[in-house]
Amino acid sequence: MNPDNIRIVLVNTSHPGNIGGVARAMKNMGLGRLYLVEPRQFPDAQAEWRAASATDVLERAVVCSTLSEAIADCQFVVGTSARERRIPWPLQDARRCAERAALASTGEQVAILFGREDRGLTNEELQLCNLHLNIPTSAEYSSLNLAMAVQIVCYELRMAAGGGAARDGAPEDAGWDAPFATHENMERFYAHLERTLAALEFLDPKAPRQLMARLRRLYGRVRLDEMELNILRGILTETDKWIARAPQDDDAV
Prior knowledge:
Blueprint lengths: L5 E6 L4 H13 L5 E4 L7 H7 L3 H5 L2 E3 L2 H5 L4 E5 L10 E3 H11 L5 E5 L8 H4 L4 E4 L11 H17 L1 H4 L15 H17 L11 H12 L3 H27 L1
Parallel strand pairs: 1-2, 1-6, 2-3, 4-6, 4-7, 5-7
């Protein structure tokens, strides 16, 4: 595991004390990269008090205006989710997910997302992820404090770095011949794909149903590298050219 390649991303955190608690949990487990997406109150004295001796993590925290900005250069993104979604996504518990994230961090930028205290991440935000992470809890009382959830995941990351995952050897994609696509480049691809499908009339923008969500799940599960992504963008570009020529061909008939 390379902790310098792992970032913890908090989305719309409402209580500054939770941000401080997360910073403390991270430093306990050797992690220091904290990203905050539109926090309600930060910086704040409550965050510093809860952080205790981890105020250096708060001082280095990166505040972003959007989630896309926070994960733009990431190649492996994990979203925490406490409930089932309409479209199921690849889902793992904290231990298995941490093993994958730790291995990926040896050569890629990894982000682990935590949502709002009251409602977590939205469906749209979860669709930006390669994997969803769930922490199994008792049915009698399933609520986890934000800092507690982060502590569990950071602990599993630390265990993965020095435990079973390290003994498993290199990840299956070690030595890949091209870097994996970043979130930013994947978003450009999805926008291009949606435009082309609409032009083909395969996608109805007025009634898209779940087409793009399912395509995001497909490509997120496969994990495209930059070369593969360029091939697909090239196919879309050539398709766009054929679409543009189609009316002229119809007139000629």
